[in-house]
C-alpha cells in the first residue's frame, strides 16, 4: 500500500505532460471521455489533483501549471457530532453500509441503503485530541537557458539560473475548531551578473511594488532590494498564501480567512483550486453556512486571493494581488421528494490596481457584475437524474466590456442521466450569452471566477478552439453513452458534442460563426493489475459560408498498465493529435503532435519514466532539446518512506496552452533539471 | 548560490522535524453530500472501519484502484467496513460522477467534495488517489498516496486486522 506518490513528482508528470503536450491533460472529459486518467506522462500511480478538465495544449493562450496548492478549506468539519439531520439515511450517515450489497444494478444506483449499525461497545470514549496534517514540498530547479553569446568563441551558453521553491502547510482540527495555513517561499539565484562592474539582472523574481508578508518593505530601485527589512534579497519571496480558521457547530459552520466556494455548476461562482494549471485562488473573508433542517444557507463576502508562488512553473516577475471584491448568498432546499431546489446570487466588484488599499476603496464603487440564478435537481426519479440551472448576468458598469456598450447576459445548463439496463446515458446542454464577461478582467491574472461546464474535450483544445470555451455566445450539448459490457471491468463508450459558436473576434481565429461537431469513442478496461484506457475523436469546426473551410482535428489517447512479475510493471501512454487549419488570418501551418511516456514501476517504491514529445506546431515558442521539435526527459521517483517521495528529473518539455477545469493558461516550457522532496504527515 | 542555499536550507529543513507526529491522530470529521443528495457525517461512522478514497473521474490510477475497493467492500461490509469514495471533481463535472460510478457497477457510497473542503483536511498536497483508513476508535490508521498493483493486498490486510475477528 505504498505508492509512488507525492505531489511533486506527479506535478512534474502532469506539468510535463501538459507542457509536453500530451498528456496530463486531465480533463473533465477525462472523466467522461477517455483515457483520461493519468495523462500521458503520468506514469506512476499518482495523479496530482487537477480540477477536472482536460488540459489541452493549445498553441497559444493562457496558462500555467498547477501548483499543488494545498489550500484546503476544512469546511463542514464537525468533530464528532452525530447527525440529526433528517437528510441522513437510516444509518445516520447516508452512507449506506449495505448489508449484502446486491450485485451492482445495471448502470443504476450507486449506494445501497443499509440498516443502522450501532457502534461497537468496545470503543472507549477517547479524550479529545487535536489532529494535524503537515505537508512539505521542497524543490530545486536548474534552468538551462537557451541564450548564448554568438560573438564569443564556441558560442558559450549563458544565463542559466536556479530556482528553489518550498511549500509548507499545516492543517488541523480540535473539537469544533479547524485551521489551515500555507506558507510558500521561492528564491532565484544565478540571475545576475556584472558587466563592467555594473550589476545586471537577467530576471527579477518580484515585480516592482511586491512585498512579502514576512519581509515587509518597499521596493528600492536603487538597491533592487526592499527598504526596511530586506533580510535576504530581491530574489527571495516568502508569502503566506492561505490562512484559515473555522468553527463547525451542529447546524452552522463559520470560516474566516481563505475558503473555496462554488454555486450550482459554477456558472455564477466557482472559486476553486485548479492544480492542473497552477491556479489556486480563494476567497479571503468570511463564509457562513447554516443547515437548519432541510435547508442549506451559505453566505460569504471577501476578496479574491490569488496564489502568487507557482509550484510547478517558473516564477519571475511575480506581481501583486488585485483585491477584487466578491460576495454572495446561496439557499438550498433539500428533500422535496426527489427534488432539491436552490437559488443564489453573487456580486463582483473588480479593481485594476494592486494592493489592499485599492481593494477596500473599491467597496464604495458600483459593482461590475451581479449574477443571480436558480437550480432544480431531481435525483433518483426512476432510473434517471436531472439537473437544470439558469443564471442571469447584469453588468452595471462598462468595465468588463472594455468601456464599450455593455448588455446583460444569461447562462443555461442542464444535464440528465438515464440508467437503462447495461447502458448509462449522460445528456448535457448549455446556452451561454454574454456570461463570460464576468471573467474579462482576470485574464492577466490567469484565473476565472466562474467556470461553467464547457462540455468540450479539453485535452484536445488548441489556441483556436480555446476561444469556444470562453465564448460569450454559444449553444450546444453533448450526449454520451457508456455500455457496461463487464461490470467493473470493461466499459466502451461513445459521445457526440455539437456546438454553435456565434461569437467572433477576441481570441477567436474565425471571422464568421462556426458549428463544432466532435464525435468520440473509447473504452476503459481493468482486470486485476491490468488496465487500458483509450479513445479517439475527430473535431470539426465548420465555418459558415463557402470560403471559411473548417478546422479539423483527429486525436487519440492511450494509457495502459502492464504488470510484468514480482511487483514490476510498465505504464505506457500515448497521445497524438493531427490538426488541419481552416481559413483564418492568424496562421495556416498544419501540425502534428505526438507525446508518449514509458515508465517502469516497482511496487510503488520506484519508478523511472522516459518522456518524448514531438510537435510541429509553429505557435509553440519553446525549442526541443533533442531536436527543434522533439523534447525528451527522464524522471526517477523513489519512495523510501511511506510519506516521503524523492524525485529527480532531467530534460525538457514544451510550452503551450493548457486547459483544465474550463480555464486555459499558457504554460512555459522547461529545460534543465529538478530535484525535490515531498512529504505529507 | 551557496550563500542563498545556506540561508534557505536550514530554514526549511526544520519543517521535516514535524514528520514524527504524523500517525495515530484522531480522524477529522466532515460532512458532505453523496451523489444521491444525502448528507454523510464521518463522525456517525465511529465504531466502524472506514476507508476514505479520494478520486476524480479524470484520474487514471484512481480508476485502476476502484475495482479493488469494490471487491473489498463486497467482502467486508457486513463486518463493519465502510468505504467512502470521495470525488474531488469540481462542480462543472459533478453531473458526470454518478453516471461514471453507475457504468462501472460500483455500489460503495460516493461523496462530493465540491468545495475542496475534505481534500484539504486530509490531502493537502492533492495527490490522487489518496486513501485514508480510519479504525474503529476513530483514529487515522493509515494514509497512502497513489495506487500500484499490490496495494490492494496491503489494504486488505490492514482492513482485516482493524476489523478484528
Describe the protein's architecture and organization.
- The complex is a heterodimer of chains A (681) and B (165).
- Chain A is mainly beta.
- Chain A has a single domain, classed as Maltoporin, Chain A (Beta Barrel).
- Helices cover 4% and strands 47% of the residues of chain A.
- Chain A is built from 4 helices and 34 strands.
- In chain B, a hairpin with a 4-residue loop joins strand 1 and strand 2.
- In chain B, helix 2 runs parallel beside helix 5.
- Chain B is globular, with a radius of gyration of 18 Å.
- Chains A and B meet through helix 1, helix 2, strand 1, strand 2 and strand 3 of A and helix 1, strand 1, strand 2, helix 2 and helix 3 of B.
> How much helix, percentage-wise, in residues of chain A?
under 10%
Principal-axes geometry of chain A comes out as: globular
Strand order of the largest sheet of chain B: 2-1-5-4-3-7-8
Identify the CATH homologous superfamily of chain B.
Glutaredoxin
Q: Please identify the oligomeric state.
A: heterodimer
Class of secondary structure makeup of chain B: alpha/beta
The tally of helices of chain B reads 5
Strand content of chain B: 15-25%
Look at the structure and give the mean pLDDT of chain B.
Answer: 85
Q: Largest interface by residue count?
A: A-B, 180 and 115 residues
Number of helices of chain A: 4
Question: On the 0-100 scale, what is the average pLDDT of chain A?
Answer: 78
> Cα distance, first to last residue of chain B?
59 Å
- Strand elements of chain B, count: 8
pLDDT < 50 runs, ≥5 residues of chain A? 1-46, 48-121
Instruction: Give the C-alpha Rg of chain B.
Output: 18 Å
